[in-house]
Amino acid sequence: MENRTYTSDAEPGTTVTVAGWVHELRDLGGIAFLIVRDTAGKIQVKLEKDEMDAEMVETALDANRESVVRVDGEVKEEPRAPTGVEVVPSSVEVVASADTQLPLDPSGKVGAELPTRLDNRTLDLRREEAQAIFEIRAEVLRGVRDAFRALEATEINTPKIVATGTEGGTELFPITYFGEEAFMNQSPQLFKQLMVGSGLERVFEVGPIFRAEEHNTPRHLNEATSIDFESAFYDHHEAMDACERVVTAAYEAVADNCTDQLETLGLADSFTVPEGSFPRLSYEEAIERINATGALDEQLVWGDDLPTEGEHALGQDVGRHYFITDWPADIKPFYIKDHDDDETLSTGFDMMHPRMELVSGGQREHRHDQLIEGFEQQGLDPEQFEYYTKMFRYGMPPHAGWGLGGERLVMTMLELDNIREAVLFPRDRQRLSP
Predict the structure, then answer these.
(1) Is 211 an active-site residue?
(2) In the prediction, which pLDDT does 170 show?
(3) Is there a catalytic annotation at residue 220?
(4) Residue in 117, 126, 145, 211 annotated catalytic
């Protein structure tokens, strides 16, 4: 819209055109106030019924909440106005009218349940709190990209339609690809490994992943954003170092550039950037500490996966981001390398927030013959992955990396109750639209 002025830039003594949504109308008899909201904030439009053009006043008074309006007028100082200024209009135009009955209240005065909000997501995202989440999410992604570039990593984009699953035939969404069966990719894992065998050496990707998981919990999605990293000539220790740097950088970016959004979400006083290195607990130490909390009815033993209740108990005990290292080799994927001096232990690691797992990673098996053995031990047919395995015959360097759940990072950072709050249009078992 030509010559449009954002509400935050309206200065006393200037003539402006503001455009946005009708946030509220206050009719006090001889005078009325139209509150117009745009992405920068709100501004008051003063309507003096007896002194202004009757048709213009009627147009303003008849505008339903959430209608899109354009207002031309002069900005005047008004200490009693919410922002200290108001617009005295010369014209008011309803650009797009809204229905009188709205499925939810974007002002937030009347609350709505999450399913209703997701069913009407565009309207829901007009709320300041929802906007704040996605401004912060955008800053998180900018921050992690800057951190990756500081690590001299190259951003890549890998296929999302694949012939085989990253980890076999489980949790896959099948699709028809020109008469052949194909799948939505679970992870860029295999492709990013191939890239570190190229001249790029160190790569990262921020992109969608698809998991046909049956979970229906506040922390699972079927389409998610994965933040992935892989580097040649890295071991698992160096990969964890990089993980710390990237996650910390995301927090620093938000702390530096999202103060208004944190204030909107009520987090201005509680938001803190992680300091120092994240504690690194071995899997053995982790199950011992979980058992010591008494949170579980049965004691964990070597080889058990960590149940959600156990993760929560350990997270409360540690009290900050931390790593779990040295997992049993049998419960990590085929591409994770075992320790050279103990084949029962893998170099795999998970990075945890006190509430949940955020990262899975490790050093990769770069030796062709051992990689093939790993496939066979997990009941996978190496021939189905020949595009991947054959490259390991042509000089694959030692390498390590990890994948970080983007929505989980935002969810834990902002203390959200449900991961769907951190997704514009979430996809889960019940939701394929909007």
Answers:
(1) yes
(2) 65
(3) yes
(4) 211
DSSP 390: G
From the candidates 202, 219, 366, 399, give the one annotated as an active-site residue: 219
From 357, 367, 373, 431, active-site residue: 357
Please measure the distance between the N-terminal and C-terminal CA atoms of the chain and give it in whole angstroms: 28
Mean pLDDT in residue range 351-355 = 97
CA-CA distance, 157 to 5, in Å (whole number)? 38
Give pLDDT, residue 169. Answer: 57
Q: Which of 187, 226, 231, 360 is catalytic?
A: 360
Query: Choosing from 23, 220, 321, 364, which is the catalytic residue?
Result: 220
What are the beta bridge partners of residue 353?
356
357 is catalytic: yes
- Which pair of structure tokens corresponds to residue 200? 């790029």
**CA trace torsion 190, 193, 198, 199 (10° rounding):** 140
pLDDT band (50, 70, 90) for residue 108: confident
Whether 420 sits among the annotated catalytic residues: the reply is no
Closest CA to 303 of 329, 285, 282: 329
Task: Using a pLDDT cut of 90, give the percent of the chain over it.
Answer: 91
CA distance 213 to 173: 10
| Residue 360 among the catalytic residues | yes
**pLDDT tens readout for residues 126-178:** 999 999 999 999 999 999 999 999 999 999 999 999 998 766 556 899 999 99
Token pair belonging to 300: 């964990």
- Classify residue 397 as left (phi > 0), alpha (psi -120 to 50) or beta: beta
pLDDT at 168: 58
Distance CA 400, CA 228 (A): 11
- What values do phi and psi take at 127, rounded to 5? -70, 145
pLDDT, averaged across the chain: 95
Report DSSP state, residue 197.
Answer: T
pLDDT for the residue numbered 92: 98
Tokens 């990237």 label which residue? 246
The pLDDT of 233-239, averaged and rounded, is 98
DSSP β-ladder status, 202-210 and 154-155: parallel
CB distance 66 to 105 below 8 Å: no
Distances (CA, A) of 396 to 186, 231, 366: 23, 12, 6
pTM here is 0.94
* Residues 312/295, Cβ–Cβ less than 8 Å: yes
Phi, psi of 401 (to 5 degrees): -175, -165
- Span 369-378, mean pLDDT? 90
Catalytic residue of the set 23, 127, 236, 408:
408
Collapse the DSSP code of 309 into the 3-class scheme (helix H, G, I; strand E, B; otherwise coil) and give the result: helix
